[in-house]
Write a structure and sequence with these properties.
The chain is built from 6 helices and 27 strands. The protein is mainly β. The strands form 5 sheets. A 6-stranded antiparallel sheet has the order 1-11-10-26-27-12. A 6-stranded mixed β-barrel has the order 3-4-9-5-8-7. Strands 13-16-25-17-24 form a 5-stranded mixed sheet. Strand 6 and strand 7 form a beta hairpin.
Length: 409
Amino acid sequence: MLSSLLSVTLLLSNAAFAAPTKRQEGGSFKVDRVQNLNYTRNPQTALRRAYQKFNWTLPEELKMPVIPTGTIQESATGSAETGEAANTPESFDSEYLAPVTIGGQTLMMDFDTGSSDLWVFSSELPSDQSAGHTVFNPAHSSTFTQSSGSTFSIKFGDSSSASGVVGTDTVNIGGATVTSQAVELATQVSSSFVQDIAADGLVGLAFSSINTVKPNAQKTFLDNVKSSLLLPVFTANLKHATAGAYEFGAIDSSKFTGSITYTAVDTSRGFWEFPASGFSIGNGPQQPNTENSPAIADTGTSLLLADKSIVDAYYAQVAGANFDIKQAGYVFDCSASLPNLNLMLGSKSYVAKIPSSLMVYEKVDSNTCFGALQETQQQGLQIYGDILFKAQFVVFDAANNALGFAPHA
């Protein structure tokens, strides 16, 4: 890895936003993660977040908010030369947080490949909406510039929302700096965001076309930084219950086995979307996914939300598995024998093995477990979340609009 780190020269589409300044070229940077042992994950919270994010109608069982527990634990950051920064997974390893410095202020933020806004809890929020969070205060930044007339608003299917004003500031992630990055300052957030006290904002890593800033959508941190990377890629090495990292600008061959299989991405909906047309259960034969919905690679979703044909076939092989209305998902006896799930990804039908050890999401009582595989609630779109990333090393190729997959080393 080159030790020099970077920023960018891409122009933002809104003339009110200044161009980031390129200082160094050809670099790479890494954001390491560590485990937060103080956070307890909740299956209904995981489902609710996915439903809200993709504007799915919430069933009654998910409308009662569940307040997550736990607090942030920061660990030592790496040196500027290596570009490493501590990263704290929330909900064990189902939600990944990283320190992001904006205008000299450090917040713990989600990295989300399923959205495209960089928004933060701000000092403009009412105290009841900011309690427990670290907030960004633009008055304490010498580099912040308000963008007159620019606003953002994110709304979800159950009326959850975040909205506010927009400015530009210097954003540093793992040693890589983008000046005049669009930063969205929340002045209102709904209770579902307030209750997630571990996260102070979000770094969207999907495509800039779905950024919500009005009147002009803004470029993501990834779009602004990619031209100055050694390679215009980032990788997700997010193994289960062990140290992992996001790395930008390089592909570390020591982190995966075999070769990487690439598939083209359909960017028309703004996501890292790819074909996912088949599957097999355990050592059984390959089967077609009769719904044949494309999938998106989403680090911001905890579960694996798949088409009905996949879910039904899998749980048909799990003794006693059933759909529990109260839990709004499939459950089974925790002592049940679980098979592996093999997913055919991309145009070349790369086989991604999801081992049985990852197919339990969490216990719901002393004997009952909630499955990591659940049915998608929007026909025509599967959401392959953290469960996929626990099993696979994933490359996001921003130059060629492609995804690459390989087993973890």
